[in-house]
C-alpha cells in the first residue's frame, strides 16, 4: 500500500529504532583494542565503538608514552572532545601507531582517547561519547588483569593506562563493567591472583572460531598478551615466553576465559585508579603512580628510547635462521613450549619490519611449529 494511502487511513509510522551501540574502553591501548574487537564479534552483532589510547611499544612508536590527537592527521571529529581513527588516519613522524591499520581491519569504530588531561579529561571524553552514542552501558577490556592491580605487585610493569581507564570511567552517565580476558596472560600478575580478584562470573569463553575471525590481524599486530589469548582460544596449553625480559606465562584452561565484574568492585581493588580520579594532566597522573607504585612505565620507555640500539640485520639470512633454531632448542630445554614472535625478534635484535619478515620465513619453512598466532618450540603437527 502506498505511503499516502497509509497516512490517509490513519496509519502513523512509529519512531525509527536505532541499533544499540556497544561501547568498549580498551584499558591498555592497541592490544586491548584488538581484544575488544575479538570479544565483540564473539558475543554481539551490534555495532561497536572501541575507545582506546594510542600507546604502542617502542618497536612501533619510538616516542615514549601515549600519543594525543596532535600526533595524527586524518582524524574524524565525532564531538567537541571526541575524534575517531579511520583507515586514512596517519601518525605524524616520528610517531608510529598500529591503530589506523587496525581501524581498517576490524568491524568496529576506533575512538582516540587523549590522556593529556589526566583522568578528568578522559572522563569528559567518555561522557560525551556515551551520550552521543546513546550507549546503554560501557565495558572496559583488559587482557591479563593488571586493571586489578593493588600497585605493589613485584611483576607489575604497566599499571598507568589501566588505572587511568578505570578512574576515567567513573561517573560517565551509564553503568560500567570490567572484562578481564586471559587472566595472567600479560605476565604481570599471576593467574591465580587475577582469578581470586576477578571472581567466578565468566562473561564468555573464547573458542577457535573467535580467534580465527581476526587471525589476519596477527600477521602484523605486535600485541603479545592478545596473541596468547587467541592461541589459548585455539587450544594452546603450556608455558609461553614473552617480552624483552623473557617472562614465562602459563597457558591454562582459564586462559581463554573472559571474566566480568562491576567497575565499583574493580576500583575497590585498584588503589592507583582511586588516586587518579581527580588528575588533570598526564604529568600529574605519572607523579601519582610514582608515589604509589614507585615508578611510571613512561619513565622506563624514556630510558629505553635514549639507548641507541645497534644496527640490526636487514634480511633473514641463514645465520638468523640458525640463531632462531638454537634459541628454540634452548627455550625447550628450559621448559618453554611457545615463543611470541616479538620475543624472538627481541632475542635476534630485529626491527619491527624485520619481525614480520622473520614470522613469514619461519612459517614458510617450518609450518609444523606454528600454532597461530604464536610459535612452538617443538613441532605440534
Automatic annotation (TrEMBL):
Give one Pfam family, short name only. Answer: DUF1152
The record's InterPro entries line, in alphabetical order, gives: DUF1152
Protein name per its UniProtKB record: DUF1152 domain-containing protein
Originating species: Actinomadura craniellae
Amino acid at each position: 500500500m502506498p505511503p499516502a494511502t497509509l497516512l490517509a487511513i490513519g496509519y502513523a509510522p512509529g519512531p525509527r529504532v536505532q541499533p544499540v551501540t556497544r561501547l568498549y574502553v580498551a584499558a591498555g591501548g592497541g592490544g586491548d583494542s584488538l581484544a575488544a574487537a575479538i570479544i565483540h564479534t564473539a558475543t554481539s552483532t551490534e555495532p561497536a565503538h572501541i575507545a582506546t589510547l594510542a600507546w604502542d611499544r617502542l618497536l612501533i612508536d619510538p616516542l615514549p608514552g601515549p600519543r594525543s590527537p596532535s600526533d595524527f592527521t586524518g582524524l574524524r571529529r565525532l564531538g567537541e572532545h571526541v575524534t575517531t581513527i579511520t583507515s586514512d588516519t596517519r601518525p605524524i613522524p616520528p610517531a608510529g601507531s598500529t591503530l589506523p591499520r587496525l581501524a581498517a581491519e576490524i568491524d568496529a569504530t576506533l575512538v582516540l582517547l587523549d590522556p593529556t588531561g589526566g583522568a578528568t579529561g578522559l572522563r569528559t571524553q567518555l561522557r560525551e561519547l556515551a551520550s552521543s552514542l546513546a550507549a546503554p552501558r560501557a565495558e572496559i577490556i583488559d587482557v591479563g588483569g593488571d586493571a586489578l592491580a593493588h600497585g605493589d605487585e613485584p611483576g607489575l610493569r604497566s599499571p598507568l593506562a589501566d588505572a587511568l581507564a578505570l578512574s576515567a570511567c567513573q561517573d560517565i552517565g551509564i553503568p560500567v563493567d570490567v572484562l578481564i580476558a586471559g587472566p595472567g596472560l600479560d605476565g604481570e600478575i599471576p593467574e591465580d591472583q587475577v582469578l581470586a580478584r576477578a571472581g567466578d562470573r565468566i562473561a564468555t569463553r573464547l573458542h577457535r572460531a573467535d580467534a580465527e575471525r581476526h587471525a589476519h590481524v596477527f600477521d602484523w599486530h605486535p600485541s603479545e598478551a592478545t596473541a596468547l589469548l587467541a592461541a589459548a582460544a585455539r587450544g594452546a596449553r603450556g608455558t609461553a615466553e614473552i617480552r624483552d625480559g623473557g617472562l614465562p606465562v602459563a597457558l591454562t584452561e582459564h586462559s581463554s576465559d573472559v571474566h566480568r565484574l562491576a567497575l565499583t568492585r574493580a576500583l575497590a581493588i585498584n588503589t592507583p585508579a582511586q588516586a587518579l580520579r581527580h588528575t588533570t594532566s598526564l604529568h600529574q597522573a605519572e607523579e601519582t603512580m610514582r608515589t604509589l607504585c614507585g615508578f611510571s612505565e613512561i619513565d622506563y620507555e624514556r630510558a629505553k628510547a635514549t639507548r641507541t640500539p645497534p644496527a640490526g640485520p636487514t634480511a633473514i639470512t641463514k645465520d638468523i635462521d640458525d640463531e632462531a633454531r638454537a634459541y628454540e632448542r634452548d627455550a625447550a630445554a628450559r621448559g618453554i613450549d611457545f615463543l611470541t614472535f616479538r620475543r624472538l625478534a627481541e632475542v635476534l635484535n630485529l626491527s619491527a619490519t624485520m619481525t614480520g619478515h622473520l614470522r613469514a620465513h619461519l612459517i614458510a619453512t617450518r609450518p609444523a611449529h606454528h600454532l597461530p598466532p604464536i610459535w612452538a618450540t617443538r613441532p605440534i603437527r
